[in-house]
């Protein structure tokens, strides 16, 4: 079981590459891409300060991660997160750096947040965008394409990003969305609302078939 990515018993976090690597300066790593109303890049802003009470539109991504058994990784946001602390959500989210593709950002984000090697990155909702305000007034305002991905690596989450995680069946995820939507992040709820029956079938096929991506 300890070699299975669906096993939660791992406690030692492997050493991860820092954001300040040989190809990206610390300043570049801390920037997010700002967008205009037509979703065109118009500049950058420091990641740490971009989310506030009047958050500008910016580029992000959301990832739904699956293990070889076809189960989905549901994660709980760390209690120290500025927005929606402690809320259960999709596997992980993040922000592409300037000049970085969304797929590249997903791979990097999987390593940073969950300590996993991500593969077979496939678009699910490439045009997804949302705006939401949490209880403290912090605003999320993102163009946030949603991607599916797989891993064969057991998660060892970064404690500042993820406080808990659990692998669930697709039907269990859908049941949670129907029974307790208030317990899940607004972006996960909105993503699910945009999926029809055909899309859910494609997700299930993707999760259980190593050779198949998702095309909508």
TrEMBL record:
It is found in: Cytoplasm. The gene is idi. PANTHER family: ISOPENTENYL-DIPHOSPHATE DELTA-ISOMERASE. HAMAP family: Idi. This is Isopentenyl-diphosphate Delta-isomerase. Residues 16-25 have a biased composition (Polar residues). Mn(2+) binds at residues 51, 58, 95, 140, 142. It comes from Nocardioides daphniae. NCBIfam families: IPP_isom_1, PRK03759.1. The keyword Ribonucleoprotein does not apply.
């Amino acid at each position: 079981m300890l070699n299975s990515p669906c096993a939660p018993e791992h406690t030692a976090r492997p050493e991860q590459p820092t954001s300040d690597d040989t190809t990206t300066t610390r300043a570049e790593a801390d920037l997010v891409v700002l967008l205009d109303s037509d979703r065109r890049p118009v500049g950058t802003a420091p990641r740490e300060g971009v989310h506030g009470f009047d958050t500008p539109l910016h580029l992000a991504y959301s990832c739904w991660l699956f293990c070889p058994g076809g189960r989905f990784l549901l994660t709980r946001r760390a209690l120290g997160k500025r927005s929606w602390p402690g809320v259960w959500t999709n596997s992980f989210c993040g922000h592409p750096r300037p000049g970085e593709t969304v797929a590249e950002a997903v791979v990097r984000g999987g390593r940073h947040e969950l300590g996993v090697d991500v593969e077979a990155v496939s678009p699910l909702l490439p045009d997804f965008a949302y705006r939401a305000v949490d209880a403290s007034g912090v605003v999320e305002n993102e163009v946030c394409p949603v991607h599916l991905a797989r891993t064969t690596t057991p998660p060892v989450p970064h404690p500042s990003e993820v406080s808990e995680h659990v692998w669930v069946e697709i039907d269990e995820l859908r049941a949670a969305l129907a029974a307790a939507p208030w317990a899940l992040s607004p972006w996960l709820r909105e993503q699910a609302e945009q999926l029809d029956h055909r899309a859910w079938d494609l997700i299930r096929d993707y999760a259980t078939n190593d050779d198949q991506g998702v095309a909508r």
